[in-house]
Structures are given as structure tokens and as C-alpha cells.
Amino acid sequence: MLLMASIVALAIAWWAEHVAGMVPCALCLVERWPWRVIGLTALLVLVLPWRRGGKVLLALIALTLLVSCALAVLHGGVEWGWWSSPLPECQAPRLTGATMAERLASMPVRPAKPCDAPAYLVSWLPVSMSVLGGLYAAALLLAMFTVAVRARGHARTGT
After folding, report:
1. Which CATH architecture does the domain made up of 2-157 adopt?
2. pLDDT in tens, 55-112
3. How far apart are CA 89 and CA 113, in angstroms?
């Protein structure tokens, strides 16, 4: 389930960027890393024997989902104007040089999307992709917690 969840999250981000033509900001790119970690860790959970490290890896996935939620809160706060982004890539470019040619040469190769400009996956839903990603991570974390509590309850009762 967790491996598929990470694949879905990364596939949606890839589709939005490469098919829908949405330009990701620097925070959007950072928000993809937890999903990569979750995917690789979930793959290890499937490969390793459960008793040898499965529980530790599942705990790592839960921690990574918390990081994903925190990044979504950070990015949402930037989008809503509550605070500025901690990443320098989200700031206006600093052009250097005395002549116009030197200033043009110091410009970034690709135009960057500002981190405070939200990207909406669904036009009629006023929730940005960064916030949707955080809600998705929170839902997965809740599902993991629910499965763990039920498994523990079944282990106690012997059913």
C-alpha cells in the first residue's frame, strides 16, 4: 500500500509538471523527497523479513510522512502569506554586474516559479497541490496508525 501511495504521489507530480505544464517551485521539488524515501523504504519492507527490521522501517515511513506533512504546512504558510520561504530559490533573483549584458548573464537559465504562488491541480477546488500533498500524507499516516492499533488489538486477543 505504501509503495503504491508513493508511486501515485510522484506520478501526479510528474504528470502535473510534464503533461499539464505546471512549473514547480523550489519548495514543490523539496516536497517530493519524502515520497521517494517512502517508496524506497516501503520496497525494503517488502524485501526484508518482517522481524529483522520491518517495524523499524515502518516507523521510518511514519516519520517521513510526518516530515511530508510539515513541509506541506510550511509551503501552505508561504502560499497564504503567513511567512516567507526559508529557501533562497524562492526569493527574487539577485542580479549582479554593472552592465546590462552582465546582468542578463547572471539570470537563471530557467524561470523559477515563486513559492508563494499556489498551483491548483483541480480548477474548481481551491486547495493547492502542496496542501493536497500534506492531506494525502496525513491520511496515509492515519491509515498506518489505524492498521497498527488494530493489529496490536488482534495480537492481544489472539484473533
Report:
1. Up-down Bundle (1.20)
2. 788 889 999 999 999 999 999 999 999 998 888 777 665 656 667 777 666 665 555 6
3. 9
CB atoms near residue 71 (< 10 Å): 21
Quick one: which H or E segment has residue 35?
A: helix 33-47
C-alpha grid cell, residue 75: 509551503
pLDDT of residue 110: 57
pLDDT in tens, 44-53: 888 877 666 6
Confirm if 85 and 116 have CB atoms less than 8 A apart: yes
SS3 (DSSP) at 84: coil
Question: Cα-flanking dihedrals φ and ψ of residue 116, to 5°?
Answer: -90, 5
Number of other residues whose CB lies within 10 A of the CB of residue 129 = 22
DSSP assignment letter at 88: G
pTM over 0.70: yes
A 10 A CB-CB count for 118 gives 17
CA dihedral 54, 58, 60, 62 (to 10 degrees): -170
Query: Cβ contacts of residue 8 below 8 Å, gap of 6+?
Result: none
